[in-house]
């Protein structure tokens, strides 16, 4: 690579096979390929797992039991013992000066060959003591060889394919040396680099591999993380804007008599969060492009009101609104709630004698009698129905609208691309309706920016005043559990009602049902024998379910024993206690959802988490629930505990370009990257004036990857 040539782009690096590097023969080439490293770009983006500051490394003699540490030592001995069954235990002793540390590995006989006496190794793990000796069980081991320098880059290595951190270090060194003369092209605009005080691309790439100081590592990482996030956001924002350009929407009249009347007649003022969300939604609705917005907010934060406001905005301009719920029961509840909220609101209508007509809201589910259904369907086509409430059946082929303007989808899960296409066809063939998705399972805002990258997000982060907070307690042992049943009996004695959620059994629905039946029988026979108990699980028929729910709602049952079928939406204000058995088996989001079933009336509510977790994560989950009732805060904890894999989806994680960036650790950079991406795309829609960036997107975020980002 002669000097004087232009700086290397990522595409240039991607065109140089690693086999061109000195020292990479057939064997190492194959080993590299086994780790998906085929080109110099792959190699340079195979970032160090961590860096070891040799000036700060611990010596074995300083290791404290219970602490995590990194030490360098020389292998003294290694041997493998046969254990019961076909298990083996390999013990390796390393030492520095006068101190020794024993490393133990189960079923990793190959360690014996890997770690031979005299070899210098770097181990990282938690130190404990065993028979008076320092020991680490299954530590991370890196063969650093004779790498010198103050800071050592430790690479993710693959022992099995014979690719060691020292090999990688050598190849990277060679690659960096070959790239340095030409330098690396930096496609990110100078203004952005200045704004965040970033080092340039070459300094970042070379610096993360061959830093002089830990500060240099941090600067390099900051820049590289930003670049990864910027690429993802550029792709998402570009696609979002494309869809917005290519699909015509309805320019709704956001200021109108109907929405004004609705607000005036509310018995309470809007919360600030509701006002803000209504404003954000209004700004979308008013534009002639379809809205795709996510409304996140805890149970009880007043999402329904915001959604109804959007539906009325459609209606006052002569369009129809649809509200879709995930189940028929919830559709019925929404219908009752929305009808009550609207009261006898009328729609201005100059064609009638009075200048107005009643607003018409209908429910469409399979439980609606056939005759009524036919009538509703017919009136939808002619526009006599203003707002229709139902399940996903509302966007099936058979349902036709006169002019569908706004669709609200109430559900936890992602509204898929297919449904969106179906919706587009419900418009008047020219325009697509505006879509608002509501969810009560918040995900952190920055994660939403990536996971729901094609949606805009509004947040209700404030509960209406006067709510009695739910007090949550963790009942860990039998005595505590007895106390829970005392509270249950006392509350029922005071006229309240109670939910009991049964242990969740992962294996099968049949087992869940058994668990619910057993719990029901056990409680009825002992702790709650004087109370009126109802049972609900996934195998009861729809009719039975409805009848149990009706009885509970009417107060004819004191306690509802149920599986998670009660998770979403069920609303019985007189229920004030939620007992969750084996609570540690549930995830944070699910526990939070379940807890949201109480605290809906004027009486103080309590939630009991019964369970004795066997893992630290389980404990952390229950502690989090006890400590906070804020869904957003809990979502952050969940993200911390489980990592982004859970929201990105395992498949996605492996495919995307996020090698260094973490949606968890790098939250502020997600937001910054999104902001920069919007600025760039809004002045240069197809990146014609940023060819370097455009090329990197094409190279690193192929269509498939970007499709993943858009889907669930
Ligand atoms: P979500 O759908 O977010 O769970 P809802 O829309 O069902 O919440 O609202 C919960 C309750 O709070 C309803 O009874 C609703 O009437 C009431 N509510 C909504 N907004 C307000 C407000 N600004 N002030 C007082 N109460 C409100
Ligand atoms: Mg619009």
In short:
The chain has 712 residues and is α/β, with parallel strands linked by helices. It has 26 helices and 23 strands.
Present as ligands are: adenosine-5'-diphosphate, magnesium ion
Percent of residues in helices comes to 40-55%
Helix tally?
26
**Percent range for β-strand residues:** 15-25%
Q: What sort of overall outline do the alpha carbons produce when their principal axes are compared? A: flat
The span between the termini is 44 Å
Low-confidence stretches: 646-655, 705-712
Strand order of the largest sheet: 13-14-10-15-16-9-17
User: What number is the mean pLDDT?
Assistant: 86
Write up what this structure looks like.
By secondary structure, this protein is an alpha/beta fold. The strands form five sheets. A seven-stranded parallel β-sheet has the order 13-14-10-15-16-9-17, with helices on both faces. It is flat. The relative contact order is 0.09. It binds adenosine-5'-diphosphate (ADP) and magnesium ion. Magnesium ion is lined by residues 249-252, 285, 287, 289-291, 434.
